Amino acid sequence: MEDRRYLECIEEISYILLKNHKVFKVSQQFAEITEYTTADLLGKSIAEIFKILRVGPSVDIKNIAEKADYFLFTKSLEFRSISIEIIKEEGSQLFIIREKPNSRLEAKHTYLSELCKSNFVGVAVYSVPDMILIKANQQYLDFLEPPFNKSYYSIGKNIDKIILGWSGSKVEKFWKEAILTGKAVQVKEYEHIGYERGITYWDSIIIPVTEGGSIKYVVSNTSEVTEKVLNRKKVEEQMDAINLKNKEMEAIFESIPNGVFVRLKEGDILQQNEISRKLIEHSNESKTSYGKNSEAKYFNESGKEINIEDMPSFRALKGEKIKNQRITVIDNCKESVLDMSSSPVYDKENTVLMSVTAFDDITELVSNEKKIRNNREQLKAIIDNMSEGVVAIGKCGNLVMLNKAAEKHFNVIKIIEGRNKNDGEIKYFDINMKELKDGSLPSDRILRGEIITEYRIIIKRYSENIYMCISGNPVYDDSGNFLFGMMCMKDITEKVKQERIIKSQHDSVLQAEFERNEALEKTIAMKDEFLSIISHEFRTPLNVINSAVQAMEYICFNELSNNTKKYLGMIKLNAFRQLRLVNNILDITSSNLKSTKINKKNIDIVFFIDAIVEAVRSYASKKEIGLILETSYKEFVVAIDNEKFERILLNLLSNAIKFTSDNKKITVRFNALKENIFIEVSDEGIGISSDKIDTIFEQFGQVDSSLSRQVEGTGLGLSLVKKFVEELGGRIFVNSKVGKGSAFIVMLPNEKVTETYDYRSSKEFFYNHILESTRVEFSDIYL
pLDDT digit string (tens) for 427-472? Predict the structure, then answer.
C-alpha cells in the first residue's frame, strides 16, 4: 500500500522503477521525454536502459551524483540534459530522471538546430569537455567512415571513437585551441590520414558556444574538399608538365576525355589529342597531301560509304555545323562507331579559318543498343509463346501490349479497357459469386496501385462459365510515377473442375472418417460405461471384505493368533489396494463420460491441508522422511470440492513418499495471490527427466519402467490428479531435475460459494474420514 501511495504521489514525475534489478514500471513523463514506449523498456536492467538512452558523460551507475549534469538521447536521437536521483528501497530502486528546464538545444540555440537541418555543409555539435557528438546533419555524417556515417552509431559517441586517427592529430590541436581561447578557428584544406578510403582534405570552422560564462558546446562546420584539392594538384601537375615540355596546347588537348582535333582550312591537322590520333589519323606520314587516310573507309548512319570530303570536319570548313552525326570507321578490319560534332572557326572578316571537331567512341554503346534490341525481340518472342496471357495497361486504362495467348481470350478487352459495357451477355464475378462492377475489375485495381496475386474471377458468357486466375502489379519509374500495369492471366477452367472433383472425393473421405470416428467414440463410451458398471460391482464385495476384517479386528482381534493377524492384515491391505484401483477406474471413466459432479463448499483450506499432512506423517516417518507444511496463513476460506482436493493432495504426497529415499524431506506449501491459490508438494526424490514430464499425466504413464518394479502403482494417479484439477477450474505444473527432486504446483481459483462445509462440528468424523482415505491411497506403499 505504501509503494502504491508513493507511486501515486510521484506519478507526475519522470521516473523508472526497478524491482529485483529489472525495470518494473516506467512513468508516462519518462516515456514522453525519451520517446520510448513502456514495452521498449520493461524487464531490462538499468545498465541496459542507460545503454539504450546513451546516458553520459561516463556514467557510473553505482555512484550517481544528484547535482551532476547528465544527458541522454531520445529514440529519435535528440539530446536532452538531465539530472538523476536514486531512491533505494528494499528490493527496489527508483530512478527519478528530470529534464533540466530550458535545456533543449533547439530552444536555446535555434540557429544551431536550423543549421543542422540544412545539408549545404556538414554541421556537427559536440559537448564540452567530454567531446560527445550530440547533433549532426547527414552531410557531416556522410564524411565519416561506416558505420559511423549513420546517426544511430555516431550520436552519443566520443569524437575519438567516430573519427579514426583523431587522437594526436593536428586537427585535435585546433579544437583544443578553440576551446582554450573561446574563439573560432578556421582550418583550410586540412590533410587527414586514417580513413580506409585514403587521405582526405577538409575545410572546417570550429566555433565554441558559451552558456553561463563557460564553453558548453563546439560547433564544427565542415566541408570535404578532397576532390577539389586532388583536382587542383592534378592541374598543378599538368601545368608543371606543360611548363617542362613547353607544349601547353597539346597538354590541354590530352586532358580532354573525348577525341578532339583542329583542322586547318587547307585540310591539315593543326592539333589533336591521343584519342584522336588512335581513332582517326595515324600519323602525318600516312596521310595524303589533303589529309586523307589511304586505308580507312567511312560510312554514314544508312551504311553508305562516304568520301573523306564529306566527313564532318571538312564540311565544317565549308561553314556547316554538324551535331552528333554517327560515322562508322573501318580500318584494318576493325570497326568503330563515332559520334561526331564539328563547328567552323571564323576570323574577324567572317572567313573560315579552321574547324574544331569533337567525337566520342560509341562503339560499345551501339553494340549495347543492338544487344538491347535483340533482347527486346527475344523477350517479345518469349512473351508471345507463353501459355499464360500477358497484358500491359497504360495509365489511362488503354491497352499497351498483349501477347498471343492473351489475344485468344475473348474477354481480354473487357477486362483491360472496360469495353463491351453494354453487352449484357458477359458478366464478371469473384470466386464467391459476387458480381464485379466497373472499378472493381483487376485492371482498375492495378491502375489504383494495388498488387494482385492469384486472384480468381468467373466470367459468365451466355451459358458458359470461364475461370481465370489473374496476377498483376503496377510499374513505376525511379521517381515513383506510374508507367504502366502488368497483368498475367490464365484460363483455369479445367483446373477448377478437377479441384471440384478432388474436393468431392476429399469430402467423401472425410465423411467416412467422421462416421468411423463417431462409431469409435460410441464404442469407447460403451467401454467406459462397462468399466464403470464392473467397477461398481467390484466395490460391493470389497466393502463386504473390509467390513468383515474391521469386525474381526473390533470383536475378536485379541483372540486371533499372530499368523491369523498377519494374514488378516494382508487381506485388509490388498482390499484397500483393490478399492483404490476401483475408485481410480470409476473416477477415470466418470471423467471420460463427462458425468463427474463437482460439489464446491467453502472450507478452511489451511486446516484441511494440515489435517491431510498429519494423517500422512506416520507413513513418511517410517522412512524417516521429514514432512513439513509451510504457509503464512493461519486460516484461508475458499470454495472447493473437499473430496476431489483430498484425492489430489493424497496422491501427490503418496508419489512423493514413494520416490523419495530415506532421511530426505517433503515440503507442502500454500499461498494465495489475487485470483488464485497455490498448493505445492516438493520432494528431494529421484526427479523426472525433461523428456518424461509430459508422459506422467497420461493414463498408465510412468517415468521409468524399472521404478514400477520398486514401487507399486497403476499409472492412473497423476492422470486422475490432472483431471480433478482441471474439473476444479485449475492447472497443474511440474518443475523437476533428475537426482534433485520434483515440485508439483496446483493452481486453483480463489473463489467462494454460498454453501459452507461445517467440518469443525464433527472433527472426529472428519479426521477418521481422512485417515480412512489415507489408508486406501497409501495401500500400495510397502512400509
Answer: 888 888 888 887 788 888 888 888 988 888 888 877 778 888 888 9
Angle between helix 605-621 and helix 642-658 axes, rounded to 10 deg:
30
Residue 343's Cβ-count burial label (10 Å; 0-12, 13-18, 19+) is middle
Give mean pLDDT, residues 263-285. Answer: 72
Query: Are 121 and 224 spatial neighbours (Cβ–Cβ below 8 Å)?
Result: no
CB 441 within 8 A of CB 428: yes
> Which residue reads 557528438 in cell numbers?
133
Which residues are within 8 A (CB) of 748 and not within 5 positions of it... i.e. 6 or more apart? 638, 640, 676, 677, 679, 725, 728, 729, 730
Number of H helices, E strands in the chain: 25, 30
Residue 568: Cβ-neighbour burial (10 angstroms; 0-12, 13-18, 19+): middle
Cα 23 to the center of its chain, rounded Å: 23
Give the chain's length.
Answer: 783
pLDDT at 783 > cutoff 50: no
In the structure grid, which three cell numbers stand for residue 621, read together? 516417518
**Rounded (5°) CA angle 391-392-393:** 115
List, in order, residues 6 or more apart from 727 with CB less than 8 Å away: 591, 596, 598, 644
**Are residues 688 and 649 in contact, defined by beta-carbon separation less than 8 angstroms?**
no
pLDDT value, residue 706: 47
Confidence of residue 680 (pLDDT cuts 50, 70, 90): very high
pLDDT (0 to 100) of residue 580? 60
Instruction: Tell me the pTM.
Output: 0.34
**Grid cell at residue 309:** 570530303
The cell numbers describing 623, all together, are 522412512
Distance CA 711, CA 688 (A): 15
pLDDT in tens, 705-718: 444 444 444 445 68
- The residues near 154 (Cβ < 8 Å, ≥ 6 apart) are 133, 136, 141, 144, 148, 162
Interatomic CA distance for residues 728 and 679, integer angstroms: 14
Q: What cell was used for 399?
A: 491497352
Secondary structure of the chain: what % helix, strand, coil (to 5)? 40, 30, 30
* Amino acid occupying residue 400: V
Question: Minimal CA–CA distance to 68: which of 95, 100, 34, 27?
Answer: 100
Three-class secondary structure of residue 137 per DSSP:
coil
pLDDT tier for residue 733 given thresholds of 50, 70 and 90: very high
Exposure letters 752-767 (e unless 16+ CB within 10 A, then b): eeeeebebeeeeeebe
Cβ neighbours of residue 318 under 8 Å, at least 6 residues apart? Answer: 344, 352
The rounded mean pLDDT for the chain is 80
Q: Which residues contact 82 (CB under 8 A, 6 or more apart)?
A: 55, 70, 71, 72, 97, 98, 99, 100
Q: What are the two backbone dihedrals, phi and then psi, of residue 227, each rounded to the nearest 5 degrees?
A: -65, -40
CA 484 – CA 476 distance, rounded (Å): 7
